[in-house]
Amino acid sequence: MFSFQQWAAQIHSFLLEKTGTYTLLIECIIIGLLAISLFAILGLVLVLMERKVAAHIQIRLGPNRVGPSGMLQTVADTLKLLMKEGLVPRLADKFLFNLAPFLVMMVAMMLLAPIAFARGLQIWDINIGVLYITAVSSVSVIGVMMAGWSSNNKFAMLGAMRSGAQIVSYELSAGFSILCIVVLSGSLQISDIIASQETGWWLFRGHIPALIAFVIYIIAVTAETNRAPFDLAEAESELTAGFHTEYSGMRFALFFLAEYINIFIVCALGATLFLGGWMPLHIAYWDGFNHLMDWIPSSVWFMGKTFFLIFLIMWFRWTFPRLRVDQLLNLEWKYLLPIGLFNLLLVTWIAIKGWHF
Amino acid sequence: MYAETHIISSSENNPQLKEGQLVINVGPQHPATHGVLHLVITLEGETIVKIEPHLGYIHRSIEKMSESLSYRQFIYVTSRMDYLSAHINNLGCALCVEKGMQIEVPARAQAIRIIMSELTRIASHELWIGAMAMDLGAMTPFFYTFRERETINDIMEQTCGARLTMNYMVPGGVMYDLHPEFVPRVRAFITQFKDKVTELEDLVTNNVIFQNRTEGIGVLTKEDAISFGCTGPVARASGVDGDIRKRFPYTGYEQLDFEQCLHQAGDSFARYIVRIREMYQSIRIIEQLIDQIPEGDFQAKTKAVIKLPKGEFYTQVETARGELGVYIISEGGTTPYRIKYRSPGFSNLSALDHMARGGKIGDLMATMGTLDLVIPDIDR
To answer: Shortest CA distance to B372 belongs to which of B131, B105, B30?
Structure first.
């Protein structure tokens, strides 16, 4: 299979030859630019996808005027938001108010680092990749709380409080689900986890506990990214817009983009952990089939799986009503967390006994 | 003024507030109030301590306006009260004027009036289900219900010339005869409704999240419903059998076979179920009439200028929201001396504080949504 590793090595040696001591700096700048452009493109694609998915669920057409079949609609919307005045409430804490959207966006961008987009295409293959993602993603709640508090608005404040309670509790369940796969694959490194799924994805190899972990993971990350049916932090019928009520213009757009990047990241992580990342679908002893699957590029596999999960989360949003705040916390602390804990024990037992396929 | 309300020091500024309580203004511009209702809500954390509805943002003094309009004209203003059941408002006023004039309405006009009223009721309930689901955070049912509502609006447009404020009922009958395509299109709508309503039941009624959000929320007991003067589906969901179409039948409802939808629970889910079942009953009524609309005049012969004899006249009709009372005091002239409307939304809103106290903010939306408030109906 084609690997991006050779490309990276070639570019690295070329830069080393030409620039010498500044190589690392130049590489950092290149990666930064790539990450920013990926951030922008992903945001545009995902917003358009959301609108199209919503439209087709709701028996309408969705954006179809700007560009071919409405593809430039999000570009137009972003331009509009860029040109809008960014209002700051008079009694807001201006420093925190301006800092919050950047913090949320920065966290989302930092999370892109350990994601493996294709064979050999990974910015930073840190040996505690999964831990890094769970740790950094917790920081985004600080940005949300900061936004809610500094706005000096009661709706924003209530939204931020809800968001804090919600993200902190659902992180536990997501963490336990991730741990299940860490136990099975025996590593925290993203590349190792993907390599361990060469003979089959953990979703299929880990018996029912892996399936339970997958379901809990999807529920927990839907809540963690503040998506319906868990969008209490920005419940528009209750709190108008929740924590970003007072934000307008590009500051609002940053929150909006960060939400979609977060969805992409949690879905990419879900695809990596449970669906084998960029690994093609292999079925034991079906050599012809496996060879055929190998022909499909690894980046297509990764994006296909990720976008399938993203579609799943969008499907939730346009189908379910919102939960109430106490029901939300009940679901986590009374159902998901005990099930997740017990499930982790089961998975550990399976891993010790070597019962998985 | 609002910019200066501090989150933390609100109890210092307002001596009525206890420590830890805060006041939020839901409305007059808020996604959940569906209009310009202003609720001043005292919260303790997420729990509601008190709700004060503030009215008057869309007061157009329709009652006062009616005093200077003739008996033919004032009916059209009432379309703007409860715009979702404009037909039924107009019918109530037309009935009151007819009562004063003591004229008989032709059988054809009566049948047309009932069909139109029931179509209006279905359209109103369809919109309500969509709006209520949106209050609970589900956007999609809104589009599904609007598909059916649009069909009704198209039918209305063809016969009445308008989609929302129809102005179709006049003293003595209806304004025009039915459009030739009216009957086949209503039949087609009945088939479409029966076919598509199951989709709605799958999406909303049988949804576990929806059931959990509405069951046991905003409970209104039978006694409370009566003492607050609640009418319509809100009262019937609490077990009050106060359907005007059954109690005081008008314009020929007594000859029709339909049930009054009652529920005993009195919670938000009961109100939802009552409205869903009412739509089925409306379809049943239309089915009975649509194939046998009597031939004849669609309007009784009346004088160009209507004068009511001196006296007081009162009629009540069952709108989609409850009992609408029209009370006319006449001095014998061409315009009413005084008109009073008893609107269902006003009384139903008065029960909101009682129903939502002690609940969460999310419960308030689930409760307020099921009251089916139309703000111009409350304010007039």
So the answer is: B131
